[in-house]
Amino acid sequence: MVRAVPRLSSRLPHRPLHRPLHRAARLGLLAALAVLSAFPLPSQERPAASAAVVPGTLPWQPVGTFSILGYDPATGEVGGAVQSRVFSVGNGVLWAEAGVGVVATQAIVDVSYGPQALALLREGKPPAEVVKTVWERDPDPRPQDWTKFGRQFAVIDAQGRVAAYTGPKASAYAGDRQGAYCTAQGNILAGEAVVAGMVRAFEQTEGHLSLRLLAALEAGQAAGGDTRGMQSAAMVVVKKGGGVWLNNDAVLRLQVDDHPEPIAELRRLVEKAAQQRRPRAATAPAASAAALRTTHVVLIMTDGLRWQELFDGAQRPLMGKAGKVADTAALRRDFWRDTAVERRAALFPFLWGTVAAQGQLFGDTASRSPATLLNPLQFSYPGYHEAFAGWYDPRIDSNDHPANPNVTVFEWLHQDPALRGQVAAWGTWHAFRRILNAERSGIPVHDGWDRGVPAAVAATHPMLARLYGTTARLWPEVAFDALMQQSLLAGLARQVPRLLFAGYGETDEWAHAGRYDLYLRSARQWDAYVAELWARYQADPRTRGRTTFILTTDHGRGDGAEWTDHGQDVRGAGGAWIAVLGPDTPAGGVRVDAPVRQGQVAATIAALLGKDWVRAEPRAAAPLPVFR
């Protein structure tokens, strides 16, 4: 039997979605074809099959090297490091701009790739698109002796997203590998273990970004490095205003141009810089516990709700056949208005009437305040993990991933004696019990159809329990928002936890089904649920004026015809939004020139309760800039 509204693939990937953009170069026809199929090119640009370039056969030696690009979500710093058996390798490989990203240009080098890539990143293009665009624009002026098919090219942006390309004619061994906030690449290497070891070292090393980049170079060299030997190394780390002088974005810019042990010399310089570096920006809560008025925090998420509707309201091209709308006239009557301000107010009256007036919103690209994801996968389990933990774990690459191996901010706070028994979660999706690791953490998680009603609530509200048990399950893994809302309200009548999570799901389900009318109506109803919860907290003297709401989503969606989908291959799916309303967040409306990351939610939750999550979990992003 075919269900009328099938559950589509984006929320249920059964295999890892995070894959490198390339395949390591290999000799012979099969390897060349494999790489080209992984990186599609116009048919007229495909070269004849040939072996990888052998060192010594070119008029100039390719820049055989290995490099690492990395990002620190706790500080916002981004950087790169490189080593090679050429003189002054830093002059031709690393390109960086604070607030934009870092680029590595290697192998059969065209150094113009660096400035081109930074320009595209400056426009807001994601790294994967940057890599593809720059390579395709390359006119390949010297295909016989300096071919574009031998280029190696890696990009990391200011949010830590990465992409890389290794051409089939790059000098063997050539390859790249991506990890959490990093990408490693190299050519003329001892083997794949070089890049694999670099990623592993970057992920496992603690401390300042420069030390992590350096550890990656050392691991690459330990695995064999550049087969020709060593000669030079370089490192760059940038952040807006991160330098020691006025208007200086260069945290570090180091070069070892000619040295028998360039990595060892680079370490000496990095450690020298560490001795003189200003103390790392405080990771303590953005407001002291004594100054905070917030005693209760509620994180409310609705799955897959786009920022486009949040800031611009209903989208006219989707309000007809393109959105499978059953009653176009009724939908336009309810949600279409002449201006974006009117449309968004019609769709989200509480958010724009109360939250925007009294709190702050992030995610409006027109205001230069995008809210982006740290994780490149852009589907649910990684998205919720990012919001709950504050960092991206590449091991979590499927919605079927088992119980979360990482401690989330919810579990960490639940371990605090003052908050023990004061943390709870409700959700329509049955995966929240795994994401919050209810069995290990001890957090009561009421999710899905089978555990949506707490036992105590079921005893006093038997009809609610009966509705959960007898309602036809349109989505087997996701209960209806309306049922969860009633379960949550009944639970709050018994106990109001200090930290609460509420996860709604219908916006994602109707979007995957392509039903724009039901997507809009479920979004409008979600806004009403949030208003109802806010009224509940403001009516209680224990929580009135002492509660902060954080509203967000787990991922974005595509534009145009791709609005129904998301994932790492869907353009626009990395855009999210965040709203904060509470006594410690001054009214600011839509923030301007304040880009944020979804991973900042976790530390913000802790900071509102007077705790420092970044100190406990250094991989986590810093709190949102919302405090007084």
Could you give the count of β-strands?
Answer: 21
- The average pLDDT value, as a whole number, equals 86
Helicity level, as a percent range?
25-40%
- Give the strand order of the largest sheet, numbering strands 1, 2, ... along the chain: 15-14-16-11-17-19-12-20
Q: Helical region count?
A: 22
Strand count, sense and closure of the main sheet? 8 strands, mixed
Indicate the structural class. alpha/beta
Alpha-carbon distance between the termini? 56 Å
Shape: globular
**Poorly predicted residue ranges:** 1-63, 278-284
Report the portion of residues in β strands.
15-25%
Gyration radius, in Å: 26 Å
What do these coordinates show?
The protein has 628 residues and is α/β, with parallel strands linked by helices. Helices cover 33% and strands 17% of the residues. The chain has 22 helices and 21 strands. The protein has an eight-stranded mixed sheet, with helices on both faces. A six-stranded antiparallel sheet has the order 7-8-1-2-9-10, with helices on one face. A four-stranded antiparallel sheet has the order 3-4-5-6. A hairpin with a 4-residue loop joins strand 5 and strand 6 (162-166). Helix 19 (506-512) packs antiparallel against helix 20. The chain is globular, with a radius of gyration of 26 Å. The N and C termini lie far apart (56 Å). Residues 1-63 and 278-284 have low confidence and may be disordered.
